[in-house]
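Blackboard transcription, Thursday session:
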Amino acid sequence: MKYQYRIIYKKNEPLRYTGNLDVHKIWERSFRRSKLPLAYSEGFHPQPRIQQASPLPLGFLSEYEMLDVYLTEEMDSIGLQTTIQEKVPLGLEILTIEQITNKEPALQVQVKAVEYKVFFLDPINENDVNEKIKNLMEKEKILRVRRKKEYDLRPLINQLELVTTATQPYLQMNLKSQEGATGRPEEVLSELGFSLEDTRIIRTMIYRSN
Amino acid sequence: MIFRVKLDLFSSFLSVEKGVHLFSNKTVSEKLERILPLVEKPGRYVGGEYNVVYKDWEITDTKIALIFPDIYDIGLSNLGLQILYEMLNDRPDILAERAYSPWVDMEAKLRENKIPLYALESKTPLKEFDILAFTLPYETLYTNALNLIDLAQLPLYAKDRDDRNTPLLIAGGHATYNPEPIADFFDVFLLGEGEDILFDVIKVYQSWKKTDQAKSTLLEKLASIAGVYVPSFYEPEYNPDGTINNINRTKSYAPTTVTKRIVGTLPTAPKKFIVPSIDIVHNRIAVEIMRGCTRGCRFCHAGMINRPIRERTIDEIIETIQIALDNTGFEEIALLSLSSSDYSNIVDLVDQIGSHFAGENLTVSLPSLRIETFSIDLMEKLKGARQGGFTLAPEAATDRMRSIINKPISEDQLLTTAYEIFNRGWQTIKLYFMIGHPSETIEDVQAIVELCKKVLQVGKKAIGNRAKVHAGVSTFVPKPHTPFQWVATDSINQITEKQALLRQELRGKGLKLTWNDPRETMLEAWLSRGDRRLSKVIYTAWKNGVKFDAWQDFHNYDTWIKAFEENGLDPSFYTTRSRGIDETFPWEHLNAGVKKSYLVKEYENSLALILRDDCREQCFACGIIQNFGDIRRENPGPVWKCPEIKNKVSMA
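(Written on the board underneath:)
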């Protein structure tokens, strides 16, 4: 019998430059430090059963990451959260843990769209950016090339707007994220004329099918 | 007053989470935020790993940066640095942080933006620490050390750092047993094991810091600590032929000889290993099961300078692993020693590890096993996994060479062991050999070829065409404080000729050969037995862009040769020249614990092809008991393998 638990967490500095595979390893080690009864895969090299919903690119921060872990014993979710939070490195902050009892398709398959906030390291001209967004969203097609293949970015953008706040304006974008149809923030930024290193990108939500 | 600039990217985060008080320097953190996306593996430069220690800079007396001048990926797992990090941070009045060499892309960005190199924990520039403590395990780090001092925005030469407010630069490690080539750049070298001596140094530093005395006074006080070598208190005097006539003391209070420090009992092993947030070379718990070696291989620097043997008990090793696993969540454990098979209760140890950690999906590695079928039993007990090869180190392939280097192995036994290794499921055997001893002939090299082929043949007999032999043939570099400190290094031509033979013969299905670039060997050879005049050469080479000498794809050679020319020195003086038995060496005033008379005797034995036994069977009076008799008396019993000392012995 295996028990499935879903962890929603934030990825903060100083883990900003820890890539997806390494984040996986960090969770694995955090669970072992927490002495959880991890369920392992079968086979010659058994691995703990851990699944991430959607890989976060290197250099992105996140306010909403999702991961499933399987245990061989049933545990109390609240107690689990306290136990694990003490054993994670700086930069991982657990928001919730819940037990998943219904049978669900694999987490990666459920993801439909992802939302990001993009802050600018330099001052921007808001009117200018709004104008660019308007032009971009009015286009029927935004043809680009990724890995030598042409694709259309436009249908991958569900939503794109500049949010003005009292402190700092930021871009909010909702991009499709499904197999074979994933929009990337840096591609949208490049269409707007910004380069990645002049921004700070934070994932704010992962939308799933159900 | 020094104005402290803080480079904290994460100040707000840290101060909330860990109560660390940090100033923020907006400009610099903005700069770093823009730099990091542009460099390879930016996770090397941010710190924040699990088990790092954050201390309050403002209220901690003494700030030490532990520095490993190679990239993070290599430096993080260095056991010496981990030992000191834990021991120092256990003290409430001391704060220890870490720094490594930035890779070339990050270095360019730091220089371009005038950001001084900083320590990973608090992002404080290194130049604001009290003490910068370098670990130098190999000579090829010397140029990186210089580069790092420069990146810290400190003057390179010790004489230019006489200001009280510049940090004290100290260095220790295997490559500082002859520190003469880098003598001009460091204030102090610590000879031997760092565990006690570093605290003695800190104690003296702390009381000096309370005064307003000059830095020279600090050095004078440090020189009175056993094992502390202050190079500026000595001045070599050269003969017309470039050899040393005498090493003169420039200060009367400097000791004539500085003897290395040892600990009588191994201090508690580290248990809170820093767990990196990115993938690095060795992701594991390392437990030193014993220190030292009794085998007496004549080429082996580590075997000579790490004497005597001191073992940890099985209970301590098991406890260390258990606590370290709880603290880290690591999945791999390495049991470290120079010769695992020689650990007194190796079978017990392996059995107990097996029963204690069964079912935990751990990988346990046990390097340096003797060539005997018993070693296979040990490996099998540790884990069924046969991925990777089984490594054996015969070093030489003829009985003559084995007698010269004092590593006797019977060919029959090697082949029997090899057959059994293949038979029990391994498909690859890695064989380590060494070429380049001046007594070696081309026939000795040919014998390496034959032996590898014989091993492959027994492999085929056992498992057919799946059998593979991987020969790793390194080139011998004569090291100071060993019986081979007198012998010549092979010339590039000799090495190339030997390697050509190996490359010609060791190919085809099932055979693989790796070797060292002979130019890299030359560099290691110049630096290993170099004198103080090399400081200028190292400086010139560095100035002309040399760094990361330890890295493959060695392209610094020409710059090094030019640096020798520019300073009027002949590189072959340090390599292909054989030394007379009465030559005064640049390290003559430094005592690594073994007596010169013992080294001479062993050198003579090698010339006469005389083998000497493991010294735990019979003591050959290498000098350890003579130098450290008191410590042996205080630490009786079988933990040391040296003879017991019952009563005070007179040294006359």
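Lecturer's comment: The radius of gyration of chain A is 19 Å.
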